[in-house]
UniProtKB/TrEMBL annotation:
Residues 25-233 form the AAA+ ATPase domain. This is MoxR-like ATPase. SUPFAM superfamilies: P-loop containing nucleoside triphosphate hydrolases. InterPro entries: AAA+_ATPase (IPR003593), ATPase_AAA_core (IPR003959), P-loop_NTPase (IPR027417). It comes from the Bacteria.
Length: 311
């Protein structure tokens, strides 16, 4: 789905109020709604409006844990590189200076300890809680796919505002600060004493399916928002924004049929509407207004129910 801002109609003003309250109270937003209703795109809208940069996204699945989203450490690669370095030293007939006698032993140990940073990388969750000057926007997508303990582990993190990296904490007496990779492309950050503590609490947006039972503890901590299906006016505005500020000819007919089919059962995804309009614009470049037969054909081909098993 395109990251397009919906119009500020009466149906959306309550959502805007919830977003503002979330920012003021530093509480996560918990968005529920059918697939394709625009839950994930809200995080991008917030980041764009406030100028908070790239959105950090954690897509939850059944194997996800809070620890793995905070950071990942690869000791096997570290051991492999150490073995290669030792083999190279033996071939060259030299000695690994990190363990050589004499000289500045403390400096050698410090250099060796800091080398762990090459094998440790912060995930989207861990990067969001770095001490940034401005808060980062963190999207935790599909929370309902995680295991039972995931919400309580998240609450512990939210309440503490930081986390500990044991692999770095054990080295704090040798190397107080270690540079590690982050979730941002080619990004690095210093971690002092193996502890990360945010200076600006991140803007957290959690998404969850409509039919999922959310634990009361998470509901108590978050601001719940139900994303309602957009109206015809809102859909037309989304279409116009997606296509560069104007709605292609004939899109109104597709929007109306899209709403009619959504009303007949489970709501369809906005992605499906945008795909149909894009297809009409490309195929009918000479005469872009779709005929009723074309609308019916596109509806049957593209607008399948998201919980349907049909191919």
């Amino acid at each position: 789905m395109a990251d397009t801002a919906p119009p500020e109609g009466s149906a959306r003003r309550a959502l805007i109020d919830k977003v503002n309250a979330s920012l003021f109270l530093r509480r996560p937003l918990l968005l529920t709604g059918p697939p394709g209703s625009g839950k994930s795109s809200l995080a991008h809208q917030i980041s764009r409006e406030l100028g908070l940069g790239r959105v950090l996204r954690w897509s939850v699945n059944s194997r996800s844990t809070v620890t793995s989203a905070l950071y990942e450490y690869d000791p096997l690669s570290q051991i492999h590189d150490l073995n290669l370095e030792n083999a190279r030293q033996r071939v060259l007939g030299t000695t690994d200076r990190r363990y050589a006698e004499g000289g500045d032993e403390a400096a050698r140990l410090r250099e060796s300890a800091r080398g762990i940073g090459r094998y440790l990388r912060l995930g989207p969750l861990g990067t969001a809680f770095l001490p940034h000057q401005l808060p980062r926007v963190l999207l935790i997508d599909n929370l309902d796919l995680g295991d039972y303990d995931l919400p309580s582990d998240l609450i512990d993190l939210f309440e503490s505002g930081g986390y500990r990296i044991p692999e770095l904490a054990r080295l704090s007496g040798v190397a107080d600060t270690v540079d590690v990779g982050t979730d941002d492309p080619d990004g690095t950050a210093p971690v002092e004493g193996g502890r990360v503590l945010c200076s600006a609490f991140p803007v957290v947006v959690l998404t969850c399916a409509s039919d999922h039972d959310v634990p009361p503890s998470l509901l108590r901590y978050c601001l719940p928002v139900r994303i309602a299906p957009p109206s015809e006016e809102e859909l037309n505005a989304i279409v116009a924004a997606h296509f560069g500020g104007y709605a292609p000819d004939g899109s109104n007919n597709l929007v109306r049929d899209f709403l009619r089919r959504s009303a007949d059962g489970e709501p369809l995804a906005i992605d499906q509407l945008l795909g149909a309009i894009q297809l009409v614009s490309e195929v009918n470049s000479a005469s872009p207004v779709p005929t009723p037969d074309q609308v019916r054909h596109l509806s049957d081909m593209l607008w399948h129910r998201l919980r349907d098993d049909r191919g």
